Each structure stands twice: as structure tokens, then as C-alpha cells.
Records
---
Amino acid sequence: MSKRLVVALSGGVGGAKLALGLSRVLPGNDLLVVANTGDDFEHLGLSISPDIDTLTYVLADIDNPVPGWGRRDETWSFMDSIGSLGGEDWFRLGDRDLALHVERTRRLRLGQTLSEVTADICRRLGIGARVVPMSDDRVRTQVRSDAGWIDFQDYFVRQQCRPIVHELAFDGVTLARPHPDIIAALRSGDVRAVIICPSNPFISVEPILAIPGMRDAIKASGAPVVAVSPIIGGRAVKGPTAKMMRELGLEASAAGVAARYGDLLDGYVVDHADADGVGNVSARVTIARTLMTSLHDREALARATLEAADALALQR
Ligand code: FO1
């Protein structure tokens, strides 16, 4: 009986594209997407989980494909009004999107966990795959710039990634427990592959891997671990990955990202543009088109990544 569960680690925009591809080539209950919550923050009195929401909207096919976050067919009356009242309007919350943050905040205040709220919202939006926060405990990515430590969204959105990044920290991560559903899946003996989606390795994937026990559980799952490079041709497809790597003194390349994941990787999927730069990557390299512009691209990359994992499993 072949193993069926696929566990995908994902952040926001880039990772969500591959998560969608995986959700379309796998039966719904065979995919468990581990969502980064290090980007979460409290804003306007609301508990906001950007990567969970991006994954949810993308998997429910109600995402706004232009920025990659938020909902399509959005209106902005709340933002316009909050601005005219002198409130903070740098973090753009559309009227439809706002309803999710208000409802999540209400339920969390009633004592529901982030994962309970996420599961119910995914069910209501008709999502077949499981979206599970990496932990129900609080983890907050902090960025140390010349001006000292700043919250992630302040760096990423309000300051548009301008500050120089000297260091990253995941506040609370040492006390965070991996969500039990993730550990149960990894221990099931039924995992076909662990996929690290092409999200920013530092801000989206490392918070997940930094949770005590997570890395060991992935290794002990017996499943091949395959990452998809978020760098294409030495430039980050979206977001500050390449800039951040340079500022952190790391090689801003597909090989640099693989080195960051270290011995966790069995396989690594890179774009044709980086084919000759990954000679010294210890993981088994697969060359594929990793730029995902169409739905077909998302599905094709998902299939290529699963095939790479299956080939590795045959070697075991
Ligand atoms: N990113 C921006 O660059 N500007 C925004 O105004 C913005 C609003 C926003 C609202 C809801 C949401 O779920 C995500 C939003 N994002 C915005 C994206 C978010 O900051 C990033 O996607 C992640 O935190 C990084 O992966």
C-alpha cells in the first residue's frame, strides 16, 4: 500500500501557489498544509494571521491574484473611513477580508484555538485540504534593523522592507508546541512526502522548523523531504528574499537557500535558470519550471515535486 499523506510547509504568497497545485493533484484529505504563524500580529484590536489567510483564500479560489494576498472583488470603505478618522491604514484590510479578522478575533476571545477557528473557516469555504497553524502557541517574527527590533509586518508592509535586516528572531518559538495534528500526521507512517513550498525560507519556513520537535518529527517521518527553491535566477520571485539574504550575509541563490535547509533536504527542485548553480547541493536536484503564473504551472510543479519525492522514496 503506497503512502498517501503529503505534508506541505508554507508561508504566504509563493508557498500558497504550490499548495494550490498540490491540492488540485491530490485527494483533499491527503494534503496537510502547515501554515506559518510568525507573521501574525495584533492590529486595530484584531488578531491577524496573514499566511493562514493567504493560504485559505488561495485554496478557496477567492484570492486576489494581483498582490497574492487578500480577497478578490474587494471594497475598501472601512480602510477609507479608518484613514479619515486618523486610524492606521498602512495595512490594507478590505471589507470582505475584515469580516474574517473580526470573526476570528471574536472566537479567539471566546477561548477557541487558532487551529479550531482555521479548520471551521476552511470548512465553510469548502476547502478539502487541511490547513493547520504550525502551533496554537504565540510565535512572532521580529526583525533587528538599525533602529532596533521591529515587528515583522511593520518591516514588511509599513516600511516596505526598506530597513536593513541584521537579524531575525521568532519570539516565543522556544516555548511553542508543534500542533498535535502535524505531529500525528508525521508519526502516522503514512507520509508520502514532506514538501517545503517556495516561500521565503527565513520569514516563512524557518519559524516552522524552529519549533522544538518539528524538525525531528519531519526527519522521523521516514518520508522524503523535498524543497522548491523560492529563488529563480538569483532574484526572489516575490518579496524581500534576495535582499534579506544579502543583508544576512547569505548567498542570494538557489544553492544558498538549500544550504540554509542543511541536512533536512533529500530533494531540491530548482528552475532551469539555476541549473548550473546547484552542483554542490547535497540533496538530489530536480530541474523544473518553478515560476508559477498559471494554474497549469502550479499543478505541473506540484506533480514534478511529488515525482521527485516518489523517486527518492524508491531509493529507501
Ligand atoms: N502585504 C502588503 O504588502 N501590504 C498590505 O497592505 C497587506 C495587507 C494584508 C492584509 C491581509 C493579509 O492576510 C495579508 C496582507 N499583506 C499585505 C500580505 C502580508 O503582509 C504578507 O503576505 C505576509 O505577512 C508575508 O508572507
---
Amino acid sequence: MNNLIMIKYGELTTKKANRKLFINTLTQNIEKMLSNENIEIRKDQVRMFIKCKNANKIVSKLQKIFGIHSIVIAYKVNNNIEDVLKKSLEIMDKNKQTFKVVTKRADKNYPVHSMEYSRRLGGLILKNSNFKVDVHNPDITLTVEIRNEGTFVYVDEIKGAGGYPVSVAGKGLLMLSGGIDSPVAGYLTLKRGVNVECMYFESPPHTSKEAQNKVLKLASILNEYSGKIKVHIVPFTKIQEAIFKNCPDIYMITIMRRMMYRIAALYAEKIGAKILINGESIGQVASQTLDSMVCINSVTNIPVIRPVACFDKLEIIDIAKKINTYETSILPYEDCCTVFVPKHPVIKPEIEKCINYEQNFDYQTLIEDAINNIKTVTNFKEEEFQDLL
Ligand code: ATP
Ligand code: MG
């Protein structure tokens, strides 16, 4: 195992106990995400070291793990300066022009002092390449760490995903539809260290198997940042049909969303989720005006986090593209919201009216029934989604 990956932690809270929790959770998450790789992990309060063979492959996985500020690939060579030179020239980007050498001597018995070593290696690089020295503003900073077991050389820091390690903040339940917004909301919440589980409301036969697979595909993409995603699929047909039969057109969406909130809140309590998360964005559609939000949210006291509430659609799309959910989100399969959409949904719903309409049918029994029949998916088999993409 010739390569050493060094990890600097992301946003750490200063409290000692938190720091320990942060580092331990990050270690567990890394172990889980890299469980198929042959690695050795060592850590201290400031950095983590991963010994491995195929550094590039490991780094691309590490870049999706929250709680990592930056990643450095250090290459191990013999303490012989000729070997150090050879490796340095290999990793210095030929498109860049200037460099400086920084030497750290962890092995204090090494006979050459740091400054002198930097000068000697710098001289050899000058002689064997077209690079020029610039000690004040170099394009490349070549760092050399001389240790007992060998010398490590590295050039750049690779940016990590930032945020907090998934799970340090506890658990949340994400209302995950097949749209663009909710996967982005999930990603942003995972980034704050929340262990996200997902809930999807389906209404077969009004919604298709493809619509469900699309949601599972989105969950599998989020799972690359988490490794712990579950999708709880709620059978929602009877409730939607009852709303359709018993409530005026313009209130259908408002009441449907109140039912979703009720179910999600009850289930959150059952699985120990402290918050609900969804992809609502202020003013995006009739059910997301402030009046609608008040009316819908009034069915529960559980905090509802709306990470994209204040983003423009184009800003949300930018993130969706970056995290690779966009192409799946825009597939055409109908969601239960789109199937039962009235022409003119109310934009200033009144809570009293909702309560009255809801008395037209026994929604409590229907909700209990739906919760009792939730199916949970934990394994995302790619074969099932392939034909979608
Ligand atoms: P889009 O990205 O096109 O806006 P959307 O899924 O966000 O689609 P909305 O009608 O805006 O659709 O719904 C608002 C939020 O409600 C979603 O972001 C999601 O969190 C939740 N939601 C809507 N439909 C469902 C569903 N079938 N299952 C789970 N959550 C849903
Ligand atoms: Mg939306």
C-alpha cells in the first residue's frame, strides 16, 4: 500500500465531545463507504490518514462523504532524494509554470535540515524540468514529508464535500417525490449531518411502476452520499380517491398534502426521525404560498425543514445537475400530485374549511391503514432502473 490519503476534517464544532462524535462518525461512514476496498485508517484530532493501493478510486468515493474539508494524495517513496525527485516530477502538473518546495521533517534524525532539503530538491527539479521557482506565489506547492518509514510527496489539496458527517445531527424523514426539488432538499440535509430516510406516496394504478422506480433511482443517487438511505413507500390510493370523492376540487391538493404531512409526522415518530424535510419552495405552486404552507403545516408540530424554500428554480436545477439527480428527475412518469391536479387549486386555503371537508370521510382509519401497509426498500438494485435511463 504505497499511497497515503490525508483528510482534513470539515466544519468542526469546537466542543470536545462534539469533536469526538464528529470524528468517530466520519470514520464509521468512511469505513462503510469503502468497505470493499483494502485500506487502513489512522486518525488524530486534526487529520485522518488512509493507506491504500488505488488512491484515485478511493478519492472519488471520499469526495461524496460529508464532513471532509479536503483530501490530499501523498505518494510514498524511499528516502533517497533521486526517488523523491522522480515522483515529484511525475505529480507536478506540466501545464503549470512555477513551484516551491516545502519540506517537513517528521524524522528528526534525517541528516539534512528542512530548508537545505527544499533547496537541494528544488535545484534538482530546476535542472530536470522547465519549471521555475517562485517562493511567494507559486502555481505548485510541492510538499515533502520525511518520515521513518519513507518520504511522502504531494502537490494539491482536492476539495472535499464539506458539511457534517451523516448521522451526527440525528435522523430526519424526507418526503421524496420524483421531482427536481426533493432530491436536492435531501442532499442539502444530508450535508448538514442528518441521517435521511425517505417517504414516497404512491397511488397505483393512477401512478406507474416507472414512477416508483424513478424515486428509487433518485434515492440510490442520494445513497452515494449516505450509505444508509431507506425508502418507505406509502400506499396512498385510497386516501386520494376519498379526497377526490369528498372534497371540492380547489381544496384537493391542500387536503392531500395535509394527509401526507399527517402520515409523515406519525411515521417519523415511529422511526425516531426528529424532523420532516421536503422540497417546497415559497411561491412555486399554489400549495406552496405562505397561506398554503400555514394551512398544510397546521396538522403537525414536528419541525419541517425546507432546504430549498428560498431558492429560485434555476438555482435548484444547478444543484440537481451537480449531484446527478436532474436527468432522472425530468423523466416524464406521473406522480400522484400530477394525476389529481385540479385546474385552479386554492392559493389562500382556510384551515376551518379543510377541517370541515375532512370530516366527510374517515381519514384517520385510512391513515392508519396506509401506515400499516408501508413497504420499506433498503437495497437499490440498478437492474430495476436501467430501462429508465
Ligand atoms: P418539482 O421538483 O417538479 O417541483 P416536486 O416533487 O417538488 O416536483 P411539488 O408538488 O412541488 O413537487 O411537491 C412539493 C414537495 O412535496 C416535494 O418536494 C416533496 O418533498 C413532497 N412531495 C410531493 N409529492 C410527493 C410524493 N408523491 N411522495 C413524497 N413526497 C412528495
Ligand atoms: Mg416542487
